[in-house]
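Deliverable D2.4 — example input (structure tokens):
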């Protein structure tokens, strides 16, 4: 697979980043991805401070390759997580869902590499100005929280590539080697994938969640929270109920009633495997995911598919 500015910047073999994933990206997945030649990431989104420390210490014990820490900026204790990350020796950070101008001063040092996740050209320019070393440009196909403008990867990536001069990783809808070839053809320096990594042996997601990803079809996901907190997840009883209510014009109060307060719906679905009433965050690429390989097997396949796709174009 092609060496790019991203492989160079991060010191990795393949231009593939494993996106931080709330509840389901711990040290084990991160180490497996880094050992396979990509950039594995500990996703701090759902972790308490001790868990962040523990996961960083353990990922360091399990790989000597580069790895990263993802910090969603919607965390109220965002600054503390940055501090813990630096103290524990994280050197590559991705920040998401927030203002890059707030993140850069906390994380930018001579020995750190900071990357910001954006859903727009405006966000990309802002991150570049703030001093970020690279950008993950995420389209509306992606699993998890999405940009409010609903811009798709195929049109967003080349516009972002044209607007900035730092490396860009494309995210959203990429789950095989053909997608990686397509992203590079659009001018990206690499990709970030989330959904594909959920269905791997090393991912700590509940087996029921992994199986739902494998069984999902091209129309298997939906967006909820357009008025509150946009999220792409698998269709199930809960998310269909939410969508119905939103279509019927339900306000925040009514939607909060449907969500209920007895469970964290994401933990319920992704960690405890309650596939009907929990939230199962996944992207449209779930329809491409047919099995649950080890991360090493997956990387071998991604490289092979990529080479075939490129050869076919020639
Ligand atoms: C289960 C799940 C949880 C996610 N949680 C986060 C998160 O905590 N922080 C973040 O920056 N992105 C999060 N994302 C987005 C991914 O990091 C990645 O950018 C996205 O999945 C790429 O699109 P794809 O799902 O089509 O591969 C999540 C995605 C999934 C599928």
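Example output (designed residues):
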């Amino acid at each position: 697979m092609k060496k790019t500015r991203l492989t160079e910047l991060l010191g990795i073999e393949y231009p593939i980043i494993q996106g931080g994933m709330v509840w389901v990206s711990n040290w084990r997945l991160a180490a497996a991805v880094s050992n396979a030649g990509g950039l594995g990431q500990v996703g701090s989104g759902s972790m308490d401070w001790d868990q962040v420390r523990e996961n960083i210490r353990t990922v360091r014990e399990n790989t000597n390759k580069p790895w990263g820490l993802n910090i969603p900026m919607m965390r109220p204790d965002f600054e503390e997580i940055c501090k813990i990350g630096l103290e524990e020796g994280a050197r590559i950070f991705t920040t998401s869902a927030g203002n890059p101008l707030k993140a850069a001063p906390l994380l930018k040092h001579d020995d750190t590499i900071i990357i910001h996740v954006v859903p727009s050209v405006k966000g990309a320019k802002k991150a570049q100005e703030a001093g970020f070393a690279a950008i993950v440009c995420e389209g509306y196909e992606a699993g998890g929280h999405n940009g409010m403008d609903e811009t798709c990867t195929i049109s967003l990536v080349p516009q972002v590539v044209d607007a900035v001069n730092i490396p860009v990783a494309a995210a959203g809808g990429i789950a095989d080697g053909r997608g990686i070839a397509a992203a590079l053809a659009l001018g990206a320096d690499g990709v970030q994938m989330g959904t594909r990594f959920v269905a791997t042996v090393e991912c700590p997601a509940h087996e029921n969640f992994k199986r739902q990803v494998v069984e999902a079809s091209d129309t298997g996901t939906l967006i909820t929270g357009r008025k509150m907190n946009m999220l792409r997840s698998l269709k199930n009883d809960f998310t269909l109920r939410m969508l119905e209510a939103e279509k019927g014009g339900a306000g925040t109060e009514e939607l909060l009633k449907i969500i209920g307060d007895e469970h964290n719906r994401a933990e319920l679905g992704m960690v405890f495997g309650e596939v009907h009433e929990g939230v199962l965050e996944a992207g449209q690429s779930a329809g491409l995911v047919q099995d649950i390989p080890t991360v090493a097997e997956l990387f071998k396949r991604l490289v092979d598919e990529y080479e075939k796709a490129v050869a076919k174009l020639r």
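Residues 295-313 form the longest helix (19 residues).
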